[in-house]
Amino acid sequence: MEVTFDNQSNVLSARILTVHDDSVIYRVTTDEGMWSRDHTYLKDANPAVGEPTNVGVIHWKDKTFEIYGHKKKLSDIRRRPRNPMKKERFWRWASDRKEYTIMYHKEKEWQVSTVCTSPEFAKGADCIAEALLDGEVVATFSVPFRPKLFGKLKPLVMNLATSALEKDEVFLFLVLIYCEAKRQDKMVRTLLEVGKGKALLFVNASVRLYGPE
């Protein structure tokens, strides 16, 4: 399934449309507090009778994911690799679901790959399982590395394979929205720090040239 987000680079407030017919399948909305986010909702645009509209929620302050009313702490569904030099993160909603590794690839897209968890390694060798990525990319999320101030932006495009849609569709939508939002937050902080550094250099240069007031 290939979908686009219709609000430029804003992953926290957008409609999600299928590419083949532009039909809306989800809506993403976010409650913002004065200094931070409260919740991001993934809403089914066409829920069946009796089914909930909110299919997924990111509780930012509580660091909790919620899918169809079931809440889990971020620490329970995400783990870090044992090697601190590795940047990927491992995500799994439940023990009977597939585990995925998610990385930002070549400064252009998020890639989601399945992790090989063979039964013979399942009982005591997380370190071995981490090393055995089976290489199957089951989802990608193409995003711009930096937001553009001018010109037309390419839409955010997400592709999910059938294997990823079977049980983990909502989970992977939430994870990719979360990862991209956090990446954008980091990018903004970096740009602000660079700006402050340049301003400080300018002030220091002015003092050297003209002396203090």
What does this structure look like?
This protein has about 210 residues and is an alpha+beta fold. Helices cover about 25% and strands about 35% of the residues. It contains four helices and 13 strands. It has a 13-stranded antiparallel sheet with strand order 7-6-5-4-3-2-1-13-12-11-10-9-8. A hairpin with a 4-residue loop joins strand 5 and strand 6. The termini are far apart. The relative contact order is 0.14. Mean pLDDT is about 80; it is low at about 120-135 and about 200-213.
The fraction of residues in strands falls at: 25-35%
Poorly predicted spans: 119-133, 199-213
The DSSP helix count reads 4
Report the structural category.
alpha+beta
Outline: globular
Spatial ordering of strands, largest sheet: 7-6-5-4-3-2-1-13-12-11-10-9-8
Secondary-structure element pattern, one letter each: EEEEEEEHEEEEHEEHH
- Largest sheet entry: 13 strands, antiparallel
Quaternary assembly = single chain
The share of residues in helices is 25-40%
* Strand runs, count: 13
Distance between the termini: 63 Å
Radius of gyration: 20 Å
Q: Give the integer mean of the pLDDT values.
A: 82
Keywords:
single chain, 26% helix, 13 strands, 13-stranded antiparallel β-sheet, globular, 4 helices, 213 residues
What is the fold's blueprint, element by element?
Layout (H helix, E strand, L loop, with lengths): L1 E4 L8 E5 L5 E9 L4 E8 L9 E6 L4 E4 L2 E4 H4 E2 L9 E3 L8 E6 L3 E7 L10 H6 L1 E10 L13 E5 L1 H4 L3 H42 L3
Antiparallel strand pairs: 1-2, 1-13, 2-3, 3-4, 4-5, 5-6, 6-7, 8-9, 9-10, 10-11, 11-12, 12-13
